């Protein structure tokens, strides 16, 4: 069977419930690993909303994402490959490896889920759980402006792709900047410099928490520091999952009236896959799919 026919078949058979089951299985392992190694993590976005509004997944949501404070996030990156089950691959871009994400993803190597923006990459294309770092929001306006500029530079040179959804000026500027720096090693140096500058602020010099790796919209958000000091466990499907102790201030700031479901026409999954198989890994897929 050709790859194109496989993709068509999977698209016809794709259902939300099996994806949610696999995502929850991954999340339970991830939370267990974090607890074992004293790492703080909590559901964010749709997972946190779903726990409060639905007691589990938002019915049309197809993944789970987690926040971690920056110091725990960095510890996770060091510990995972040494301590975690080899089934789950920690994907994080570096000078020799690019996955076009701005954050860590944990991938189930026994499944296949090829995203459109990664279609040409030779990486483990398993179903993914996103892990996003939280950083301090500096008190001084000048420091905050510099932080956002560095965060935008980090986003461009870490993902190394032209942003298609953030306006013509940003798209054109990004294309020019990437064109001026074609070297992989130089791009890496720039993004590591940007990462260092945007994350250098301490609790003492800050009066809030922000998310710098979630795109321009969420980069502007400022949450109370106390909202993320610890996690609380709440019912989620047939288990319990951690959410931030100050979940209401976080979710209200990020999403507004999060307890009211959106209109029916907005109740759709936000992610897509060109190749999905929850029962096997396509080990012979090496980024060669051509969408023609």
Quick summary:
The chain has 292 residues and is α+β, with helices and mostly antiparallel strands.
Describe the structure.
The chain has 292 residues and is an alpha+beta fold. 39% of the residues lie in helices and 18% in strands. It has helices spanning 3-13, 16-36, 45-53, 70-83, 141-159, 168-180, 184-198, 216-219, 247-255; strands at 42-44, 65-69, 88-91, 104-108, 112-114, 127-138, 206-210, 231-236, 239-244, 275-277. The strands form three sheets. Strands 1, 2, 3, 4, 6 and 7 form a six-stranded mixed sheet that branches. A two-stranded antiparallel ribbon has the order 5-10. Strands 8-9 form a two-stranded antiparallel ribbon.
List the keywords.
disordered N terminus, 292 residues, 9 helices, six-stranded mixed sheet, 18% strand
Q: In this structure, how is the largest beta sheet organized?
A: 6 strands, mixed
Quick one: how many beta strands? 10
Q: Treating each run of at least 4 consecutive H or I residues as one helix, how many helices?
A: 9
Structural class computed from helices and strand pairing:
alpha+beta
Quote the distance from N terminus to C terminus.
Answer: 17 Å
Q: How much is the average pLDDT? A: 89
Task: Bin the strand percentage.
Answer: 15-25%
């Amino acid at each position: 069977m050709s790859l194109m026919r496989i993709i068509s078949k999977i698209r016809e058979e794709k259902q939300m419930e099996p994806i949610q089951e696999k995502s929850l299985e991954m999340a339970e392992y991830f939370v267990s690993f974090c607890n074992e190694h004293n790492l703080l993590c909590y559901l964010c976005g749709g997972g946190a909303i779903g726990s409060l509004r639905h007691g589990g997944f938002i019915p049309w949501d197809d993944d789970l994402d987690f926040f971690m404070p920056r110091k725990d996030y960095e510890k996770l990156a060091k510990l995972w490959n040494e301590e975690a089950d080899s089934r789950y691959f920690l994907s994080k871009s570096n000078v020799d490896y690019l996955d076009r994400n701005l954050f860590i993803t944990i991938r189930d190597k026994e499944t296949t889920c090829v995203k459109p923006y990664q279609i040409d990459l030779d990486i483990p294309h398993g179903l993914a759980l996103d892990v996003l770092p939280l950083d301090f929001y500096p008190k001084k306006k000048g420091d905050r402006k510099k932080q956002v500029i560095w965060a935008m530079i980090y986003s461009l040179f870490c993902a190394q792709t032209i942003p298609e959804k953030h306006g013509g000026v940003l798209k054109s500027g990004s294309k020019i900047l990437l064109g001026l720096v074609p070297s992989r090693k130089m791009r890496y140096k720039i993004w590591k410099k940007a990462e260092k500058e945007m994350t250098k602020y301490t609790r003492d010099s800050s009066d809030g928490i922000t998310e710098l790796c979630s795109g321009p919209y969420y980069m502007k958000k400022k949450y109370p520091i106390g909202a993320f000091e610890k996690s609380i466990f709440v019912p989620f499907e047939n288990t319990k999952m951690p959410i931030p102790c100050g979940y209401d201030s976080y979710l209200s700031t990020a999403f507004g009236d999060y307890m009211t479901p959106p209109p029916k026409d907005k109740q759709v999954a936000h992610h897509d896959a060109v190749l999905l198989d929850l029962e096997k890994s396509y080990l012979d897929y090496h980024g060669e799919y051509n969408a023609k």
